[in-house]
Specification:
The chain is mainly alpha-helical. It contains 4 helices and no strands. Helix 2 runs antiparallel to helix 3.
Amino acid sequence: MTKKIVQHPSTPEDLRKPEIVAERLLAEMCPLMIELIANWEFDIHNEDFTRDFRIVVELLRAILYGQLGVNHELQVGLGSNNPLKQVEDSMVQQEKIKDMFNVSFSPDFVIPTTTDDE
């Protein structure tokens, strides 16, 4: 048996459809990301880039939807199922990339962590 939630007509649209907030953010954020990528002289008109960038957008959508409690099929690999379960895992990957390509990450990005004591 499925329960149906009835919304009052005066309920704001973003509460009735929480994904609208995520879509508005994506609509504002993605053009800025593309502009930055273009400013760094990457070919944003390349067919492969366009196809691959859609993956980035869908991952961002899945993350935002998850924060809003909205289901997205790419959430399978996020949250507790994320293969990078620890901050240290990301650091290990960065070190591997540094060694492979002789590059450094600047500025160093550190994910802030909290403890139960805070």
